[in-house]
User: What shape does this take?
Amino acid sequence: MRRYFPSIFGNAAVKERIGRAIEASALSHALLLVGPDGCGKRTLAREISCALNCERRDDEAYPLPCGECRSCRRIKDGNFTDIMRVCRGDRATIGVDDVRLLKEDAYLSATESSYKAYIIEDAERMTPNAQNALLKILEEPPANVIILLLATSKDKILTTVNSRAQTVTLQRFGESDIKDYLLKHSDKARLYSRVSPELLDGILMSSDGRIGRALELIDDKTAKENGDDRALCERIISAMRHSVPYSELYAALSALPQSRVEFSAAIELLISALRDITLIRLDGDVPLLFYSSRDAALTAAKDLKTKRLLALYEILSDALQDASKNVSVSAIAADLGVKIKFI
Assistant: This one.
């Protein structure tokens, strides 16, 4: 039996479904790849582009994509003129001008390939105007053009866009799967044995079922930074108790990173910790996202009542939403301190 997307770990059903559709020239002109950051959306989008243009696409003696032909190598190197990425970069959103450029290019003939592919990263960050501008090309796509929309959630994708793209949902991995990948399949396997058991536990918890995130964290420097991030998170959780002076909460929140991306990651970590603390009281068998053990979560939950935990969860969720906009990170942190103090 032919192998599909051999360089992608897991998601066997997704790989086979897309691979067979490509072989039969029946792949949808628009795919919405949904999953958390680090789950493999970008890798899958790249591999779909390779498979569509693989020079051995019709030769069942080779996997699809083969990964060895000139087209596959060039696409993986990012040196292929008919593959275009649309990214927001440091901007909060993807605007209508980005989509207009995509549309203008899509109606031009391919220069060196069978298929032109357009990969829209953070598709949920497209403005409503940008999504509406995309509708025409989704409704009347040029021949041999595929649009790959990458999103962490479908919630912010307009229904009109959603209905014109086939949704492909990528799954999170269990800790044992991530361990197996880091040890046997990753080019960073040599780093695996150098990470202490404590840091490795932190990496597996922080990766939240995402291989891409685990690969980022396995580096020595990043592993230490992750340990520092978790320590700050635990410090903030501790300072959220009523019995702790406001000065300690203020000091802990002031230590949050000022980079918008890093700040958002820290808030997500706090939300994971609060989720563990809240659910552990309701069901002792729930899988934990932040704490390495039930006892650690119960210790953190001391003096934090369920009503307060739910209010804190809502406050942090609002802060995460603000961070995705153009609100000052320092202003969000200051607002957090005031809101937490008065709940």
The first helix runs from residue 12 to 23. The chain is about 55% helix and 5% strand. The domain at 221-341 is CATH 1.20.272 (Zinc Finger, Delta Prime; domain 3). The two ends are 60 Å apart (CA to CA).
